[in-house]
Structure prediction request, 290 residues.
Amino acid sequence: MPPVLTSPLVSTQWLADHLGADDMVVVDTTVRPVAGVDGTPTGRFTTGREGHRAEHVPGAVFADLIGDFSDSDAHLPFTRPGRARFEDAVGALGISNETTVVVYDDARSEWACRLWWLFRAFGYDDVAVLDGGASVWRDERRPVERGHVEPDPTLFEAVERPDLWVDKTFVERVVAGDESAALVCASPAPEFAGLDGRRPRLGHIPSSVSVPVERLVDPDHQFRAESSIEAAFAPVAGAGRVVVYCGAGIEASADAFALTLIGERNVALYDGSLDEWSSDAEAPLRTLAA
Prediction:
């Protein structure tokens, strides 16, 4: 029997207690940002596969979110994959519809939350995010392994939940007042305000509320108490439906995960996010000075 999840968030102690359990797969989802020669962000990313080979939670397999878990034919990065591609990628990791899955990354869990959201959107809920990810696991001096873990491929069947996504047309209707939903931007506060000139996609979609990931996780990369998360999302409490977005749909996944932690069920992710919105010269963007 696989371990039973009672929450979409598990502690390092929970994982340590269940390592090696039958029908459980631990997945490293790390993606690395690429910095410029001066150390500033470039907006590009590379796979964390080499870091995984150097060190990972014992038995963890590696998921390539840039390649396997994105639509390679899409014109925007990190676009969600189609059903068949997702099924193939999940099955290749040795995950079936009877597997308990724990996902983690070496950042603030936004990459782990991205894969968690993909699982959720494809109808599978026996998935949890490791609170604090690799950084807390290391800080607690828990065991690690090196090298490649070869999964034992299996079959996985997805059932799509299309209501967990919205497109640009839907967001346009929200902005116009023709659709009832609250917009939440998960981008860093300086980008939301239009104050960080080093980064593209400055500003936010009109009528959005700012809830950056740093308000949801502490400096140790663990999720804050539910009361703190509820306070962060207080401006959209009772909205009925909450639509989250960011630059490319990654940080927004952490917001979607946090909303789920506090009991919100009518949450959707605008997958195109600001990458798509800002590519339209007629799509309005706002800054705090506007």
